[in-house]
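Q: What changes when S-adenosyl-L-homocysteine is included in the input?
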Amino acid sequence: MTVESGLIATTGDKTNLLGLSPKALIDFFESIGEKKFRATQLLKWIHQNGVDNFDEMSNLSKSLREKLKQVAVIEAPAILQQLDSKDGTRKFLFEIGGRGSFAAGNSNAVETVFIPEGDRGTLCVSSQVGCSLDCSFCATGKQGFNRDLTGAEIIGQVWAAAKSFGQFEDGANRTVTNVVMMGMGEPLMNFDNVVSSMTLMMDDNAYGLSKRRVTLSTAGVVPALDKLGEVTDVSLAVSLHAPNDELRNKLVPINKKYPLAMLLDSAKRYIEGVPDNRRKITIEYTLIDQVNDRPHHAHELAELLKDIPVKINLIPFNPFDLVDYKRVSNNALRRFQDILIAAGHIATIRTTRGDDIDAACGQLAGEVNDRTRRSARYRQASE
Ligand code: SAH
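A: The predicted holo structure follows.
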């Protein structure tokens, strides 16, 4: 690599320690002839103290710090923009592709949303630049797909958000207490990087969140969901949106490959494998006016889920350009919820947050340098 400016010198061949799981960090230190315990020290510096400068790591010798500077960096994606909603929700736009890449015309950026609610602070994290699944009602899907995020770019959203709140210092007014992998992208299509980032979220030397407070949301990539159960036990959310295959095929096209029965079986196996029998699968159901919000849909959904430990989260559809769908009416929303409850289910309504800054579910778009030509097709079709 030719180093043309100080900006580029931080990327390139050096290892970015930010995204390394605790195990990968041990391997890294062993590979440079250092002891394992250095990994714990580094984890704490990076993820508990928010330090990205080796010179500040006072319990490392000067020579080790110099050695690290030669081979490694700690680099989170830069915050290009930060928007605050009147309800306290904050949306971040992160530059993906290295410092200065956005200005240089590589227009990839992902969005991350912080949602405060009482003592809780939920960070909604992105896993891909765009998404390849193309669900018919999702803004991210309409943008096409560019690439998977690296581990550093995923955990970097948590790190940078926490740092922007002063969470690494005493007296922070906001704290990330929960993470949901519900931003841009399909987390199970970027399996390794998502799993290693979630490991960091839960590690006691890093963010120390309990597995109940880290949620992976999927549109239903069944083989990857089966594999997930072998490596982690985070909370699971399944984006269902329809009570039968015919309708789901239209809304969530990956259903043609992995139909409902297969998906629900896999989700059930996942939750049965979790050593905590109070846990439930969250079912996400986005309600779209006249499309999937009729009483017969609610009855069919109640029946479909009757033997599975679920809580159903109803999400009013959030409109955006490029699609004609409309938000469910308040009456239909309440009726839908009542039918589920009468059938013995737990059914809650997700309040829309941050819609004044386009930060609500399904509105995340960022900037995707689309490699699929899908975004151009949708733009043409809507003209
Ligand atoms: N690909 C994963 C992660 C994205 S999560 C998944 O599908 O689960 C984003 C959540 O918001 C999903 O439940 C998604 O279906 C929902 N959603 C997408 N577009 C929406 C919209 N326009 N209005 C409301 N919810 C939407």
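Observations recorded in class: The pocket of S-adenosyl-L-homocysteine is lined by residues 135, 137-138, 182, 186, 217-219, 239, 284, 286, 315, 317-318, 361-362 (CB under 6 Å).
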